[in-house]
Amino acid sequence: xxxxxxxxxxxxxxxxxxxxxxxxxxxxxxxxxxxxxxxxxxxxxxxxxxxxxxxxxxxxxxxxxxxxxxxxxxxxxxxxxxxxxxxxxxxxxxxxxxxxxxxxxxxxxxxxxxxxxxxxxxxxxxxxxxxxxxxxxxxxxxxxxxxxxxxxxxxxxxxxxxxxxxxxxxxxxxxxxxxxxxxxxxxxxxxxxxxxxxxxxxxxxxxxxxxxxxxxxxxxxxxxxxxxxxxxxxxxxxxxxxxxxxxxxxxxxxxxxxxxxxxxxxxxxxxxxxxxxxxxxxxxxxxxxxxxxx
Length: 294
Ligand SMILES: NC(=O)c1ccc[n+]([C@@H]2O[C@H](COP(=O)([O-])OP(=O)(O)OC[C@H]3O[C@@H](n4cnc5c(N)ncnc54)[C@H](OP(=O)(O)O)[C@@H]3O)[C@@H](O)[C@H]2O)c1
Known about the structure:
single chain
C-alpha cells in the first residue's frame, strides 16, 4: 500500500504517520517538501508519487489569524483539497480529507449531524466549508472526516495550555460557553488507518455509496471549562500545580479576532453505523492520552 500523507508535521499528521506505517509505505510530506499555497505544482507532485491513497492532514488552522490572512487560509483550506481530490479521482486513488465543527454556527443546542446545514461564523470555518464543497464537487472515491476540538499532548494544544496555566496561576478562568467534542488525534488517526486497511483488504475498490462526509470525534460533549477540569484531575504531576481554583468564564471575557461557535459538538452515529466502528467517549480517551503523555 502506498500512502501519500500531507501535513505530517501537524498534530494529526504526526499521529497518522505512526498509525499508517503498519499498513505500507507512507510518503510523508511537510511544508518544506511542498508548500500547499503553490497550487499549480500539486498535481505533478502527486502524479510522481503515484499513491493508492492520499491523506490530507494539512490545513491552515490558526483560527484568529485566518481573519487577517484570508487568502492564504482560503488557498490551503479550500482550493488545495479540491486540487488533491481531482488528482485522486484521475488516478483512481482514495482521498481522505479532514474538516471541522467550525463549519457550524453553534446555535443548534444539540450535537450536529451530517444533515445539518453549515453556517460558519468565522473565516476559518468559511474556508474549511469551501474545501469540503470543492472535494464533494470533484467526486470520485473520497472521505471527508469532520472532527472537533482536536488535541494531542504536544505543542500548544488545549490540554498543554491548561497544564501550563495550572502551573502559573492560582485561579484559572475557563470559558463554559464553548462546547465541542474533544477528540484525541490518535483516535482519529487510528480510525483513518482502520478504514484504509479495510478498503485495501477488500480489493474491490472503495464503494461509491460510502464516499462522503462523516463526523468523527470523541463521543459526547464538553465545555472548555469541563474539559479543563478533567485535564487537571488527570494531570500525572498534580504536585506541580499552583492552581487552587478553576472558575467558569464567559467568552466575552477573552475577546478574540474570530468568533467561536457556542456548541458545535458532533453526532458521530453515521460514521459508527456505516463502518461498524465504535468511537470512544471523549473522557476515556483523554484519560489514556494523559496517562501516556502523548
Ligand atoms: N485543531 C483542532 O482543534 C481542529 C478541530 C477540528 C478540525 N480540525 C482539522 O483537523 C485537521 C488537522 O488539524 P491539526 O490540528 O492536526 O492541524 P495542525 O497541527 O495545525 O497541522 C496542520 C499542518 O498543516 C501544515 N500546513 C499549513 N499550511 C501549509 C502549507 N501552506 N503548505 C504545507 N503545509 C501546510 C502545517 O504546517 P506549519 O505548522 O509549518 O504551518 C501543519 O503541519 C485539519 O484539517 C483541521 O482543520 C482541527
